[in-house]
Amino acid sequence: MDNSVTMEKIVSLAKRRGFVFQSSEIYGGQAGAWDYGPMGVELKNRISRFWWKEMTQLHDDIVGLDAAILMHPRVWEASGHVENFTDPLVDCKKCKQRFRADQIDPAKLAKKECPECGGELTDTRKFNLMFKTHIGPVDDGTGLIYLRPETAQGIYVNYKNIIQSNRMKIPFGIAQVGKAFRNEIVTKNFIFRTCEFEQMEMQFFVHPGEDDKWFNYWREQRWAYYEKLGIRMNKLRWHQHGPDELAFYAKEAYDIEYEFPMGFKELEGVHNRTNYDLTRHQQFSGKDLQYIDQENGNERYIPFIIETSAGLTRQLLMALCDAYEDQKVADKGTDDDWRTVLHFHPTLAPITVAVLPLMKKDGLAELAQDIRGELKEEFATDYDQGGAIGRRYRRQDEVGTPFCITVDYQTKEDNSVTLRFRDSMEQIRVPRTELESTIKKAIKNYKRA
Ligand code: GAP
User: Fold this and answer.
1) Is the bond preceding residue 171 a cis peptide, omega within 30 degrees?
2) Residues 6+ away with beta carbon under 8 Å from 45
3) Which listed site, 273, 274, 347, 420, has its alpha carbon 20 to 30 Å from 217?
4) How large is the average pLDDT for residues 221-239?
5) By alpha-carbon position, which residue is closest to atom 2 of ligand 1?
């Protein structure tokens, strides 16, 4: 069996086990949009909660925000998105395929030759990635509104509100998780690049002279986050934006890249956005957005912003790819020699504990349900009584459940159960009264082999 991790395997498992479904599948699917099933929404919520805890609970100087997706259209003029948020686009006149010009072999582009069919390409034109719609009952052009292409601007326009309402002092940060929309020309590689996605962004406001120090601090913090998340660190690397990649307002930018099945690709960015955004919003809104430092002789300045910008849905894809393994566990020459297992960190696993009665009869099912009832306040639990116990373990391995509890005849006698660990497949006998503490300790001490 081929035990490599491919995108086909990830897509197939994601659908089979209820992580991710194609949007509107019964109508043939909607490109660029995906639905998160029972396992997917649990995984997504757990990643989001992990990030939120990391950024707010563990950083005293960061507070949260949930700004609206719909914002005043002037926001996007001020931010530069109306003018500059474009991709270069070409169409093939023969096969009608559409490409991003910057992703085509430059020699072919120069000859206007389609990379797929060799047909003639159109001239390159700029294409704005923002989705437009209108607000109000009549579409007469006056109610133009955009679906936000990033969550960041909602933070910038609220920065003064937050200083005033929460008495924040520089340096401080504002964190936000939410939907963003981009009319991407090419959406491929499953949920890697989509038209509707979620971001987890944090904007950190600093004194202009201290931006380099905080930029380095946030680079270190964001790298350490992935280690805590249980990601294999040899799959990550830094990529510094060269002069041709750097956004025109950015002083410095680094991406953290993950080695997906299709190669190293951007996971999140750490950007020094200077005082560009707030300066522009001050100019466009006519409101004074200077910070007044009352502890330093009322010094006034527009803060610099260090941004950490991660894709939530992209992190979910990373979590799936990183956890996936086709593992040989026996040598009998049958399909059962192999198991598919997701080695999620237990804090990310959609189900933490599955309770499995060895048999449905003789009161074992009721006993197992009872044990599940005891544990569900503390852990996300599942109950499965269908089929051979080995098959049930495999089903749980496939969705990454780190702990399985088997209730058998001995349980009826001495109130002990079998606790099985997903990664090692080791089984130990644990008194029912010590289950909760044993599992909590195992979660705390978890290290992927
Ligand atoms: N506020 C800065 C900003 O939005 P970005 O590099 O355009 O920067 C940040 O996006 C992150 O959002 C990316 O690193 C990626 O994880 C995620 N992202 C961007 N476009 C995406 C898309 N079309 N689909 C899924 N995730 C996307």
Assistant:
1) yes
2) none
3) 347
4) 97
5) 309
Q: Which residue has the tokens 């089979």?
A: 16
Task: Work out which ligand 1 atom sits closest to the CA atom of 255.
Answer: 14
309 CB within 6 A, ligand 1 = yes
Residue 142 has pLDDT above 90, yes or no: no
Cβ neighbour number for residue 321 with a 10 Å cutoff: 22
At 352 the three-state DSSP class reads coil
| Residue nearest atom 9 of ligand 1, based on CA coordinates | 309
What is the Cα–Cα distance from 124 to 102, expressed in whole angstroms?
10
Token readout for 13 is 């498992």
> Separation of 311 CA from ligand 1 center, angstroms?
6
- Residues 404, 351: contact at Cβ < 8 Å? no
Q: Does residue 101 surpass a pLDDT of 80? A: yes
- Measured CA to CA, the distance from residue 137 to residue 144 in angstroms comes to 12
Is the CB–ligand 1 distance for residue 47 below 6 Å? no
Is residue 148 in contact with ligand 1, taking CB distance under 6 Å? no
pLDDT score at 248 = 82
Q: Is the CB of 268 under 6 A from ligand 1?
A: yes
**Which tokens sit at 289?**
């957005």
CA angle 269, 272, 273 (to 5 degrees): 100
Instruction: Please state the separation of Cα 16 from the chain's center in Å.
Output: 21
Strands 416-421 and 427-431, by their bridges, are antiparallel
By percentage, how much of the chain surpasses pLDDT 70?
100
Mention every residue, 6+ apart, whose C-beta is less than 8 A from residue 293. 170, 207, 299, 300, 301
The secondary structure of residue 53, as a DSSP letter, is I
Q: Is the CB of 411 inside a 6 Å radius of any atom of ligand 1?
A: no
Largest CA distance in the chain: 80
**Six-digit token string for 319:** 């979590």
Given a contact cutoff of 8 angstroms between Cβ atoms, the answer to whether 213 and 198 are in contact is no
352: tokens are 């933490």
Residue 89: predicted pLDDT: 92
pTM of the model: 0.95
Task: Report the distance separating Cα 104 and Cα 126, nearest Å.
Answer: 15
Backbone angles phi, psi at 395, to 5 degrees: -60, -40
How crowded is residue 190: how many other Cβ atoms within 10 Å of its Cβ? 22
- Over residues 164-196, the pLDDT tens digits come to 999 999 999 999 999 999 999 877 899 999 999
